[in-house]
Design a protein that fits this description.
Radius of gyration: 16 Å
Helix content: over 70%
CATH topology: Ferritin
Number of helices: 7
Shape: globular
Number of strands: 0
Number of domains: 1
Structural class: mainly alpha
Length: 195
């Protein structure tokens, strides 16, 4: 198995797409929050695992790229007269995924990288759906650019894990956590948000 063969276990529903399209301003505000969180998440790996020097340059690059996405989403929000949320709400999807991580430091490191991969892959899948379904050509082009970037991030986190753990172990654990991710996604209420 290779990184490119890893697949999410369930597709996002057309009902989710319609929910987003019906309240796109709310979705944009949530998207901005998600980009800020994604940048922070990449940098939190740097802070928590400074001894993992092989992955620090990639994590810094990812953190900067996510921050650039935030800047671009914010520019779209400004054009539409939208302001940022006063506080970033709790992401139940990510919270539930993280509950499945091991408590052992090494295994937790592996699992956190895999969870990051799953979150990025779900983002890729959902941004692609937005790109294909939104009627505004500018937004469609923007979300096409975003989903192409997210695809790279999903794979890069798995590649990072494979630097420190056996590939078979990483892929097996990815499959386990992907099953959990599918169950979590099916249990989420539909709202104009990425998760």
């Amino acid at each position: 198995m290779t990184v490119d063969m890893l697949r999410l276990k369930v597709a996002s529903s057309q009902e989710w797409v319609q929910t987003v399209l019906n309240d796109f301003d709310t979705f944009l505000k949530d998207h901005a929050d998600c980009e800020r969180k994604a940048s922070s998440m990449a940098m939190s790996f740097v802070a928590k695992y400074p001894d993992r020097t092989e992955i620090i340059p990639e994590l810094i690059h990812t953190g900067i790229e996510e921050l650039e996405h935030f800047r671009l989403v914010y520019k779209i929000m400004e054009k539409r007269g939208l302001t940022l949320n006063h506080s970033i709400g709790e992401d139940l999807y990510v919270k539930q995924l993280l509950k499945n991580c091991h408590s052992d430091r090494e295994k937790r490191f592996r699992d956190r990288l895999i969870v990051a991969s799953l979150v990025e892959n779900r983002g890729f899948e959902r941004f692609k759906l937005i790109s294909e379904n939104v009627t505004d050509p500018e937004l469609s082009k923007f979300y096409y650019m975003i989903y192409e970037s997210e695809a790279k991030h999903g794979n890069s986190f798995v590649k990072m894990a494979c630097l420190y753990f056996d590939e078979i172990e990483v892929f097996d654990r990815w499959e386990e956590l992907a099953e959990k991710e599918a169950d979590i996604l099916k249990g989420l209420e539909l709202k104009a948000a990425l998760h």
